[in-house]
Each structure stands twice: as structure tokens, then as C-alpha cells.
Amino acid sequence: MKSEEFKQWAEKLNLSKEAIEEIQIIRSSDPSRRVGGGAKNSSGIFPSKKMGVSIQYESSHVELPTVYMLEFDENVLEFYDQPPSLKLNKVGWRTPDYFVIEKDKAYWIECKTEEELIKLSQKQNPKYYMDKERTWHYTPGEEYCGKLGLSFFVVSSKDLNPRLQRNLVYLKDYLKGKEPDLLCVTEIRQTIMSCPGITLQALNDLAGNEFTIDHVNTLIAIGLIYVDLFDSLLIELETVKVYLSKEQNKSYINIREQAKQKKTQKITVSNGSMIMWGETLWKIINHDHKTIFLASELGEHNSIPRDVFETYISEGYIVGIDNINTMDEPKVKEIIETATEEDYEIANRRYEILKKLERGENIKDLKETDRTIRNWKRDFNLAKELYGNGFLGLIPNNKGRGNHKRKIPDNSIELMNKVIDESYETIKLKTAKIVHQEYKNRCKENGIRTPATYQTFCKEINRRSLYERKKKREGSRAAYEYEEFHWVIDETTPKHGDRALEIAHIDHTQVDLRLDIGNGKTKKPWCTFLIDAFSRRILAFYLSFDSPSKKNEMMIIRECVRKHKRLPQLVVVDGGKDFQSIYFDSLLMRYEVIKKVRPAAKARYGSVIERLFGIANKLFFHNLQGNTQIMKNVRQVTKAVNPEYYAVWTMELLVERLEKWIDEIYDNKEHPALFDTPKNIFNESLAKTGKRPDTYIPYNEDFVLMTLPNPDRPERKVYPGKGFKLNYFYYFCEELKDPRVENKKVEVRYDPFNIGVAYAFVNKRWLKCYSSYYAFIKGKTEKELKQITEELLEKRKQHEKGNQVTDKMIADFIFETEEIEKSLWEEKISNRAKVLESHLEEVKPSVETNGNELELEFERDETDDTDLLLFGRVGDE
């Protein structure tokens, strides 16, 4: 809203001055914090078309669906993530998840899962509570907002409709599309008019030259035809019914309800018949024209008037035993689930014996007594009455026999568990043997005469969860592989999406292969993959010698658009710094792609792409000469088998071969989880759910400019006559001759696929600059440019490392020279001192005393024609 619109909205709601000031602060403030997912939450950013900015979410289970609802709700005018913190009574500062402005109200939102809210409501002096309408409330928040005349709502995971959520995700691409032409709309509406309630699959089958499934989806999204998005799933084309309008849908529902007739359940009223009344099984033991006499499986007896009995049957309160699936009864399920193969073998033998005796056959070598046979018949008949299946009574109940109570005293068991908690399950990693001895010592101190044996002690440890033991002893990362899988039973959004190009994963891996980069040098490249989660198809890949950075992400996005003309709706990344680049986020925001960050150290959240790394290594990289599998045991590697010696592949050849492997082998190999090839799943999904042409991205210079990364130092100096230096090369254009630009710093970007060009931001626009290599690479295809650029950059980098003289190298050389000079000078002084000392020993002094004077004379060595005195020379007399 503009300032004037906001003023009119506030006057319409008659808001107080304090409330208006509070809302103005929220509208003018940035998010109060940057969200990060918890141990099991996936956070991310949602590109909001309504707000024109990225909206943060901290959980993909509650907050992301809430953002979808706010984005597509026509009553919502604005919404803000992580608004300024509120100072709440008895709580302190608290940051709500969102602040929402609707046409007729404004409110804060706190998002929680239902399970979390239940736990919070069970604490002492709970701040959260549920009212009679099963709506959650947050008392401190409501008290604060009530003073301002605003509201505070708690959104629970139970409040969200998973079907509506999935449908909104499905239709998101069509909300920004153009309305089909009139002829197409007329054809679709006439088809529905001739067959109201036609399924979406039938419409798809009728699609042809007049209309496509994309046109149908667009009309659903903009409301020109009607589908119940709250109850239907658009991905299930066979069950989705399409109407002209909501009123037509409602009318047909009413007609079907009137057409339904209650059918009286036929029950034979005879002695011995079984019925189910409520949740209790009853047997008709007698009856007449007025009364029905019943006996329950629990031994209870009851009588009911015949007319009431028939009324209960017609209303469905009483049903016949034939219509009851007795296999679903808890007792029956318990008998079946706990029976072993040996139990079934015994039951089969008993059943065969009873059948033979019933037919009057004589059984030889029958070891069982008559009493045992009578017991079997009794159990068979009782089970037949109770469960409708006499065989269940013949299954032996061996598990219930014997004394299952523990022989160790309760105080000994209690102390044993206490010692395990305090001494074994700690980061000291004590052995069970040592902890058991500690337990025995404490038993003596506490007067317990019968401590558990070491074997029993170990069994008690193994009773506990392996995951919890590992977590307490070695930490959560070590225990992660033993963590229980989270099986999603409730209806939620599928973790891999409903269709192709809905969810994709991006990640990097260093390839297990050494490449020849010339001059006898080799290097391992990095590979970045973008894989579609639904079909497991590799959408794009990017090979580079550089370690992962924002450049890799920008290039993988560019490759995806080049190959598929569009981007996935949501990308899943890890928490690495390279994925937190403002340039990467801006690129996703520009093309309305949602980013989801998976939790740290939780490999299962990225299992799709982690599995791809293993497949690529096993089926491709490990089959090439120069692969580095052997380097896992580096101490055993000799020169004769060192991969560096056998490196023959170059970057150009590897890119070409990897692309061929992806297109011809991986794409056409049946995936074990899908029972089909990634290529078939991908193409069938697009045919079924629409190709969504409105999401196509033109691969032109504007798009390429958006994907260009900036260097680590984004600003570079413009040298007169040379231009600016970037990645070991100079780039120049005519505009850089301007004296106002020379010797100044300008923001630059480079093209990792084309070393011949770079861009400089001069006079508020991006200028294309050329390097000295431009003439050499002019006319090359982008594929050729990509391969040439990567190898040329690496060779130049290696050359610069070996030959470039830097200021640091000059300073180090001068420092080293001074150290040498100092050492030489000290050595010279030392040598002169030694020479002087040797000459002084050769001179013999004679001392004569004359009065108070002391005369010192030196005897001259006649063989020496020089006199040495200290460091000088004494001449002849």
C-alpha cells in the first residue's frame, strides 16, 4: 500500500495512534533476524510477488504453507516476516513469525506444530491454551495486542489443509500466466457444460488442437472453471471433477445426496446368529415376535424389543456379523501378529485331527488324550463364536505361559538404571565392564545383596535405544545413522513433490579423478549437479577446477535454463556459505524460485543428490583412467600406481564424455525407486501436469547478465590504456578511456563460460568489455567457450603462481638479504677478534717502575716486520 492508501485503511478501521505507529514501524523495518532451520527444520526464502521481496520461513511444515496461504489470500494486503520484537508481560522480548494486514484487520502470527503446542500447554503456568472451539491462544501476545486494538493468532499444523497447500503449489505457475484466447475458453467450457463433473483426466484426453492441459490449469487458477481445491488433489487427474462454477458443483452434490437411499441391512434373526451392536459382539440366544434375547462375548445378557431392534438395524447401529471384518478386531490382530511359524504348524495339526474325527476317520498313533481333544473342540467353538473363525482358537498361547516377572529385586534394577544413566551413558565412554564393577560397589554401599550379573547388566544396556545411547556417549552426529526414520502417515506434501520441475536439489562434490592440466601437472575438478527430485533426472551439471562458490550456483542455474528453458519451482541446498550469497538469492528471487535450506549434518534430507554422487562415481568416474579410488589407502600407494602419473583426461574431454553418459546411460537406466527411467518419468509428468509455457525463461543477454558472478573483490581499478584486470587478464572498452573513469574503481562481473568478455558498471549501466583473447575465441559455441575458458584459467593461474613477482615476494627478498648481511658482518667481527687475540699472546710485556710512573714496553719480535695494536698497524720507527 502507498502512504495515502495506508492512511485510508487505518481510518476505515478506526485504529488508535499507538497502533498506527506500531504498524508503521513494522512496515518500514527490515526483518529483525535472519532465520535458520533447527535440527529437523528446513528454512528458506519465498519470492513473494505480492510483497515484491523475499519472505523468510523457518519451517517447511508450518511456516511455508502459511506463507502460501498469505500470498494467495485476496483479503491479505501485506505481510511481513520476522517483525520487530514485542516486549510481552512475564515473557520478555518475543519475535512473532509474521505480521499480516488484511482488508478489515491486522494481526501477528505465531506458527507451531500441533505436537509442540500440546507440550507447551502441559507446562506449569502455560502461556498457550486451547479453547472449546479447539482454537489455540497465546495469552501474553493477546494481552499486548489487545491494548492496541490488534490481534494475535496462533497457527497450528492442524489448521492447515494439506490438499489446498499442494493445489496452490501446483497452480502457482499458472497464476501469472495470460488468459487463453476466447475460442479456447469457449471450447473448454462447452465440454464441461455437456458433461458436468467431468474428470480432469477426461479433459486431458480430449485436449488437442483446440486446448491443452495448460489451458485447463490456467482457467482453474484464475477461476473461470471450478474445482474444489479444499477436497480434491489436482495431481490425481482421475478423481478431480471439474464444473463451470462453485454453484454448479454445490447443486450436483445436493442432487446426489437426495438420490441416496438408506438400505436396510438384512440380518437373519435366528438362534446362534452373531451381530455387532456398537463395538460389542452379541449372539442371539432366543427370540419371539416381541423380544430379542442377546448374550455378549463378555458374558453379559440383554433383551431388546423387536421393533427397536429392527430400527437399530435400519439406522446402521446394528450390523450383521458377515459385514464385520473380524480380522481388524484388536484381539484377533494380537493373536495373528504374535503367532510364530511353529504355532501355526501346531494349529494346522490340531485342525486336521479335528476334521478327521468329525468325518469319523480312525487316527493311528494319536498321542493326545480324549480330554485334550475335548479342550481343542471347546477352544475351536469358542473362537468361532467370538471371532467368526474357529481356527484362531487352535493357535497355542505359549507366550502367555511361565513367570515373566524379573527375578532381580526392584531396588537393584532401579540402582542399575541409575548407574547406567550417570556413568555409562556419558562422554567418558566407559566400558560396560568398568561400569558394572561400579554398580556392584554401590550395591554393597546400599546394602543390596543380589546385584545383577554382568550378562544381565549388558542386557539392560541393550534394552535401551541404540540411538539415544550413541547420542549421549558420542554426540548427535555419531548417532545420526541410528536415528529412527520419520514415517509420514498423515497427508502432507510429498517430500519429492507432485510433479517434475517442482523440487530440485543442488550440491557439489569433488570428483575422484585427476585431470591433466599441462606441464606435467594434474588436478581434481569439482562437479555441481542440479537434479529433479520427482523424476531423478539430472537437469544440469557444471565442472570446474575452483572449489564451490557462488559462481558454481549461478552457472548451474544458467545451464538449466539453457537446456530446459525454465527453472524448478523450489531448490533445496545445504547450509554452505556459497549458497548464502546475495547474488544467488537475488537470482532466485528474480525468477520466483523458492529456496529451502536443509538442516546441517542431516544427510537424509539431501538423500536424492547424495545418492547421485555415489552413482556417478560408481558408474562413470571410477571407470576412467586416473581415478583416485586407490588414494583412500594413501600409505599403500606407490609411484607405479599413483593416479597423477596416469592422468590423461582433460577438462574438455571430460565434460563431453560426462554429458554423453548422462544423456545416453543415466537418463535411460531404470531407477530402482521409480520402476522407470528418469527420462520417461520426467516427460510423462510434463504431459500429465502441463508444460507451463508461461514459466519459460528466454536465454538471452539479459538473462546471462543476471547469472554473472562477481569476483571476491567486486571493484577493480581502471588502468589508463589497459582497462581493469580480472582473473589474470585485462579487459577494455571505449568507455573506459573517459578521464573520469581512469584510475577509479568500478564494479565488475565476469563470465565463467567466456573468458573473452567481462562487464563493468560505469555511468549506471553495465558495459561489455573485451580481453585480448576475444579475437581468438570469437565464433566459438558456448559449449566450446566453456571448456576453453576453464582450462585456460587454470593454466594461467598455475603460471601466475610460479612466475608472478608480487610486493610480498620483493619484501621477503629484501628481508632475507638483510639477514644474510647481518650474518656475514657478525662472522667478520668474530674473525678479527680471533686474529687480535692470537697476536696479543705473542707479545711479552716488561714492566719497570720509575717513581710513581708505570712504564710499559713491548718487546718486538724481530721476525715480524709489523706491529699490531688492536685493529691498526704500527709502522717502523
TrEMBL record:
Domain Integrase catalytic positions: 490-686
GO annotation, biological process: DNA integration
UniProt name for this protein: Integrase catalytic domain-containing protein
InterPro entries linked to this entry: Integrase_cat-core, RNaseH-like_sf, RNaseH_sf, Transposase-like_Mu_C
PROSITE patterns listed in its UniProt record: INTEGRASE
Lineage summary: Bacteria, Bacillati, Bacillota, Bacilli, Bacillales
Source species, domain of life: Bacteria
GO molecular function, one term: nucleic acid binding
Pfam families cross-referenced by the UniProt entry: Mu-transpos_C (PF09299)
